[in-house]
Amino acid sequence: MKQKYRIWKNDKEKQLLIQEYAVLTADTRKQKLPGLEDEDFSLLCEQTYRAEEIKKATSVGRDELILYLRNQHFFPIGPYMELIADVVTSMYAAKGEQREDLVFDDKEVLRGNLPEAESEVITEIEENLNENGSSDNIDDLIDNDNEIPKSAAGRKNSSDS
Going by C-beta distance under 8 Å and a sequence separation of 6 or more, which residues neighbour residue 52? Predict the structure, then answer.
C-alpha cells in the first residue's frame, strides 16, 4: 500500500496537524510514487496536537515524541514513525509555519529495505530576520559545505604531527 503523511506546523493556531492518507483503489496501486496525485490518496486519519506539548516531547527525545504522537487512531509502523518524528523535530527546531508530505510504499518494507520517504516541502520556511536583516538560521552561517579533499586532509593531519 502507498501511504502519505501530511505534517503541518501551524504557528497561527499553535498546533501540529498530521493527516494520514493511503491509496485504496486498485487502478492506482501499480503506479509509481512520483506519478501519484493528491486525488489518488484517501484520508484515513487526522490528528491535531498542541504545539506546547510537541515542544515538550521533542525536548525529551525522539522516543518520547513517538509515544506522544501515537494513539489508538494513529499508529504508523516503527520505521515510518521514526521518520515522522524526525520531520516534526526539525519543524519545531526551525522558526515559521511549515508543511511537508512524506510518501511511502509498503512494498519496500516487505522486501526488507528501510523505508525512504519521498519528502515534498509544500511551503517554504519563513525566516525570522533580526534587526541587522540577517537570519538566525544556523545553516546561513556555513559558507562552504563541500567536503575537504582527502589529499588536503592528509596534508593537514601529517603537518600536525
Answer: 14
CB atoms within 10 A of CB 160: 6
Report the phi/psi class of residue 33: left, alpha or beta, with left for phi > 0 and alpha for psi in -120 to 50. alpha
Q: Is 70 exposed, middle or buried (0-12, 13-18, 19+ CB in 10 A)?
A: middle
Check: pTM over 0.85? Answer yes or no: no
CA-nearest of 45, 87, 53, 81 to 66 is 81
Domain ranges of the chain: 2-130
**Residue 72: other Cβ atoms inside 10 A:** 5
Query: According to the 3-state scheme, what is the secondary structure of 3-14?
Result: EEEEEEEECCCC
Beta carbons within 8 Å of 12's beta carbon, 6+ residues apart: 97
Nearest alpha-carbon partner for 4 in 16, 18, 25:
18
How far is the CA of 154 from the CAs of 98, 144, 157, in angstroms? Answer: 42, 19, 5
pLDDT in tens, 96-128: 999 999 998 888 778 877 676 555 554 444 445
Q: What does the alpha-carbon distance between residue 151 and residue 73 come to, in Å, rounded to a whole number?
A: 54
